């Protein structure tokens, strides 16, 4: 059986025009803080972020439609 994993990434638009994949920020109740991403260990607010589910099978990222067994 191959190892499978799903991660949630946040992709904000920065002031310099880049769109990096970042980890989401979590609140005190372990829920995702909408519009926040972790930057250098601190939560930072970004308006209009896009959320991505990324699928990994056997250490390689695959498209969502290929992740199903």
Explain what the structure shows.
With about 70 residues, the protein is mainly beta. It has a single domain (about 5-65), classed as Rubrerythrin, domain 2 (Single Sheet), CATH 2.20.28. The chain is built from no helices and six strands. The chain has strands at about 5-10, 25, 30-40, 40-45, 50-55, 60. The strands form two sheets. The chain has a three-stranded antiparallel beta sheet, with no helix packed on it. The termini are close together. The model has no long low-confidence stretch (mean pLDDT about 85).
SSE layout:
Layout (H helix, E strand, L loop, with lengths): L3 E8 L12 E3 L5 E8 L2 E4 L4 E8 L2 E3 L7
Antiparallel strand pairs: 1-5, 2-3, 3-4, 5-6
Low-confidence stretches: none
- In CATH, the topology is named Rubrerythrin, domain 2
Number of helices: 0
CATH class category label: Mainly Beta
Helix/strand order = EEEEEE
* CATH hierarchy: architecture: Single Sheet
Share in β-strands: over 45%
Summarize the structure.
By secondary structure, the protein is mainly beta. Helix content is 0%, strand content 49%.
State the main characteristics.
69 residues, mainly beta, Rubrerythrin, domain 2, 3-stranded antiparallel β-sheet, globular
